[in-house]
Predict the 3D structure of the following.
Amino acid sequence: MSFIMSIPGLSRIPYAPSDLSPGALMQSFPAMMAISLVAMVVISVVVMNNGKQKPPLANPPRWNQTTLSKRIEFHRNGRAILSDARKRYGKQPYRLIVDAGECLILPPEYAVTIRNNMDLSFAKATEKNFSGHVPGFEMYAALLHEKRLVQSVVQDQLTKFLNVLTKPLSEEATHALDVIFGQDAEWKETIIAESILQLVARLSTRVFLGDTMCRNTAWLEASKAYTVASFTMTLKMTALPSSVKFLVPWFSSEAKNVFKHGATCREILTPLLTQRRALRAEARRNGKPEPVFNDMIDWFEQKSGGEGYDPALFQTALSFLAINTTSKLLTHAITLLANEPQYVEALREEIVRVLTADGLTKAALANLTLMDSALKESQRYRPAAFLTMRRQARRTVVLPDGLVINKGEQIAVDGFNMSDPTVYPDAHKYDIYRYQRMRANVDRSTVSQAHLVSTGPNNLSFGHGAQACPGRFFAANEVKIALCHMLLKYDWELAEDTDLEARLVFGETEALNKGNKLRFRRRKEELDLEGL
């Protein structure tokens, strides 16, 4: 797929004379002087009002480059460009042309400064960066709902019901692992990213859509296809100007596939949504209590009053937000652990000890401190992205130090602290005991940052503050339940040629090789998880 675009040049500059001869320039000199004086006054006022000059641009286009070419350059080699800018500017804010356009990069310490500022919107940044205004990609604008529907349902209902959801998630893990990995005691191989994506999709759907849909093969395949196709296409559109993105669905076969997968998801979900609403209506007519299902369909209906939102769109948006990030965390964790058999044995010992004493409950999952530490270390050791806390200013914001963030400006916080050896000794080493040791620290602030769901400048995997990932509490429990089953029921080791080095995906984001294979075989578990 290719796009033909014209790059505006001199014609965009106000007051640019059409005749550039010396005589013409001399004739226009008085007017140019007047304009220059006015401009100097305006600039002086702006600088005085802002308190500081505009932060420097780290990667300006050269004379033979355009901003678009710099965006493409970052898309291809963002990690190196970001690293170079970080070395030059240190703790100083600077601007960087990233794949989505110009972005103000803030040092890690600014995470605390901006954490609760709702004028700096994560939802607006998501809509812009993932093309939520383009037909077929509307799910990336779902977070902008006037009632903050996704955020409020996750915070108010999903998190509240975590204890109730533990048993259903464990039941589904038993079924899903049997389907995906089987019962064979002989060694087999699997592309682990694909298998984990299936597993997380099944577990998440059990909670989001109930015990029928999580085993509906058509839904599982359609939602996975839609998630992968839409995300892949948004990455390809990233460097395009927003003004031309709406044309993509007309000319791109890949974008048309996104439409197709989205329509399939809607076709599968609509009968279930209609049935639920009919059951409620019938109960009201008969003067009986309305049925309660305690899943995302139910909670979205309650919060919205059944109006002002597209149920199918919001379910697919939720599936993307949950499945994409959670599967990556679990994939990285099990792959890294497969290379460290001593860590696996220590985790198995903890699982058996804690679950024997406490059962399989929300409290027991919280007491799996080594597993919690291992998962957080997986995030730190192989972060998905270094530019975190992406925001777009809804209006001009002046920070306490005088830094001005203009309306419409995009910002991000550099998450480099996760790899900084001055913050984490032996930062290059994968150490699952790292955060467990932090829990024993006498400093309460250190202890508070040692949990998987904790957020702060030293680990921004879930963001920080009022707009931090609201689903992290559910994700933490979901991944822990999955790991309990995977580690007790199977042996794991790296297949030949499996690569533990991070690979550049796009921009500054990285991941393990998506083609990595693990070897696995069924083992006799020390504890009957189904009997707990």
